[in-house]
Amino acid sequence: MSENGLYPGLNLGEAHDDAHLQAESTVFGFWVFLMSDLIIFGILFASYASYLDPIGLAGGPGPQDLFDVKSVAIQTAFLLFGGVAYGGVSLSVKYEQGRAKLILWLLICAVLGAGFLFFEIKDFISQAGEGGTPQVSGWLSSYWLLVGLHGFHVFSGILWIIAMIGQISTRGVDDVVKVRLSMLGVFWHFLDLIWVGIFSFVFLATLT
Amino acid sequence: MTKPNTGELNPQESAASEIKSYATGFIVSLLLTVGAFAALLSDLPSTWKIVLICVAALLQIIVHMRNFLHLSFSGGQSREDLLLVLFSVCLLAIMAGGTWYIMSDLGGRMHQASGSDAAMPEAPTR
């Protein structure tokens, strides 16, 4: 790791010349957006913590009634593996390991992300079935908004991956695609990072 | 901004070190995640559980930033990226910490009286 980083995420490196330089400003701009996203998530974490008392629960079902640790662990595993799998994407772009390998890694990320979403939506449905809908209490509203917003980000990430697979197969791995894949990588790893906060504070710390 | 490329970097060697970095990040993240879940399921007092979970989360966030997002204090731009993170965290600490403090303080002042019987008799003894 002796190389100098110009922007967040695994850098393409100087062998990629124009794409590497283009990525510096583009990925940095995207990073600024992600930091504004971080502020939104942070404020949602704060409102979640504020509602986590008997008044915020408003007599509705609480964390002990609704949360399923096993399902949270499964979701965490899916997202962690999915995040690391993007390392395969970044490395196969950087070392030009061919289109097929690149698309394969992207598909692995998308499938793991979809697995995460499957269990998350399953949880949401069973929680709604147990009377834990967002309108029941302030705590439930903040829970649905925070976790739902993260889930929506993952969904957008999957759409983005599919769009990138389309672009790779039609236009090949050119400079534009490389820069976009660098941004997608930062986005994907960032979602993983937010999830660390969610599973630790929203689920685990609440259940102690 | 960047140092000139020496051209002596063997791509295969570099890939090996990057794969190693991803693998390290993955293993450490996995251990911290398992540790956090194990802390929840353990018999420790709940204050200890919360402390352990928070420490594991902070460490894992640092590992993610270092090994997956490749932010570090060295390097041209990446220092600015990290400063942006620290600035955002500073803003967040003010806004999120302030929200949480004000709301919990307000909750304590407004609802404690009606919640406990001990505080109630004080009102009529004027």
From TrEMBL, chain A:
<dbReference type="InterPro" id="IPR035973">
    <property type="entry name" value="Cyt_c_oxidase_su3-like_sf"/>
</dbReference>
<feature type="transmembrane region" description="Helical">
    <location>
        <begin position="103"/>
        <end position="121"/>
    </location>
</feature>
<dbReference type="InterPro" id="IPR013833">
    <property type="entry name" value="Cyt_c_oxidase_su3_a-hlx"/>
</dbReference>
<dbReference type="InterPro" id="IPR000298">
    <property type="entry name" value="Cyt_c_oxidase-like_su3"/>
</dbReference>
<dbReference type="InterPro" id="IPR024791">
    <property type="entry name" value="Cyt_c/ubiquinol_Oxase_su3"/>
</dbReference>
<dbReference type="GO" id="GO:0005886">
    <property type="term" value="C:plasma membrane"/>
</dbReference>
<comment type="similarity">
    <text>Belongs to the cytochrome c oxidase subunit 3 family.</text>
</comment>
<keyword id="KW-0812">Transmembrane</keyword>
<keyword id="KW-1133">Transmembrane helix</keyword>
<feature type="transmembrane region" description="Helical">
    <location>
        <begin position="28"/>
        <end position="52"/>
    </location>
</feature>
<dbReference type="Pfam" id="PF00510">
    <property type="entry name" value="COX3"/>
</dbReference>
<comment type="subunit">
    <text>Heterooctamer of two A chains, two B chains, two C chains and two D chains.</text>
</comment>
<feature type="transmembrane region" description="Helical">
    <location>
        <begin position="186"/>
        <end position="207"/>
    </location>
</feature>
<dbReference type="GO" id="GO:0004129">
    <property type="term" value="F:cytochrome-c oxidase activity"/>
</dbReference>
<keyword id="KW-1003">Cell membrane</keyword>
<comment type="function">
    <text>Cytochrome bo(3) ubiquinol terminal oxidase is the component of the aerobic respiratory chain of E.coli that predominates when cells are grown at high aeration. Has proton pump activity across the membrane in addition to electron transfer, pumping 2 protons/electron.</text>
</comment>
<feature type="domain" description="Heme-copper oxidase subunit III family profile">
    <location>
        <begin position="1"/>
        <end position="207"/>
    </location>
</feature>
<feature type="transmembrane region" description="Helical">
    <location>
        <begin position="72"/>
        <end position="91"/>
    </location>
</feature>
<dbReference type="GO" id="GO:0019646">
    <property type="term" value="P:aerobic electron transport chain"/>
</dbReference>
<protein>
    <recommendedName>
        <fullName>Cytochrome bo(3) ubiquinol oxidase subunit 3</fullName>
    </recommendedName>
</protein>
<keyword id="KW-0472">Membrane</keyword>
<feature type="transmembrane region" description="Helical">
    <location>
        <begin position="141"/>
        <end position="165"/>
    </location>
</feature>
Automatic annotation (TrEMBL), chain B:
<dbReference type="GO" id="GO:0005886">
    <property type="term" value="C:plasma membrane"/>
</dbReference>
<dbReference type="GO" id="GO:0009486">
    <property type="term" value="F:cytochrome bo3 ubiquinol oxidase activity"/>
</dbReference>
<dbReference type="InterPro" id="IPR050968">
    <property type="entry name" value="Cytochrome_c_oxidase_bac_sub4"/>
</dbReference>
<dbReference type="Pfam" id="PF03626">
    <property type="entry name" value="COX4_pro"/>
</dbReference>
<dbReference type="InterPro" id="IPR005171">
    <property type="entry name" value="Cyt_c_oxidase_su4_prok"/>
</dbReference>
<comment type="subunit">
    <text>Heterooctamer of two A chains, two B chains, two C chains and two D chains.</text>
</comment>
<feature type="transmembrane region" description="Helical">
    <location>
        <begin position="81"/>
        <end position="103"/>
    </location>
</feature>
<dbReference type="GO" id="GO:0015078">
    <property type="term" value="F:proton transmembrane transporter activity"/>
</dbReference>
<comment type="similarity">
    <text>Belongs to the cytochrome c oxidase bacterial subunit 4 family.</text>
</comment>
<feature type="transmembrane region" description="Helical">
    <location>
        <begin position="21"/>
        <end position="41"/>
    </location>
</feature>
<protein>
    <recommendedName>
        <fullName>Cytochrome bo(3) ubiquinol oxidase subunit 4</fullName>
    </recommendedName>
</protein>
<comment type="function">
    <text>Cytochrome bo(3) ubiquinol terminal oxidase is the component of the aerobic respiratory chain of E.coli that predominates when cells are grown at high aeration. Has proton pump activity across the membrane in addition to electron transfer, pumping 2 protons/electron.</text>
</comment>
<keyword id="KW-1003">Cell membrane</keyword>
<dbReference type="GO" id="GO:0009319">
    <property type="term" value="C:cytochrome o ubiquinol oxidase complex"/>
</dbReference>
<keyword id="KW-1133">Transmembrane helix</keyword>
<keyword id="KW-0812">Transmembrane</keyword>
<keyword id="KW-0472">Membrane</keyword>
<dbReference type="GO" id="GO:0019646">
    <property type="term" value="P:aerobic electron transport chain"/>
</dbReference>
<feature type="transmembrane region" description="Helical">
    <location>
        <begin position="47"/>
        <end position="69"/>
    </location>
</feature>
<dbReference type="GO" id="GO:0015990">
    <property type="term" value="P:electron transport coupled proton transport"/>
</dbReference>
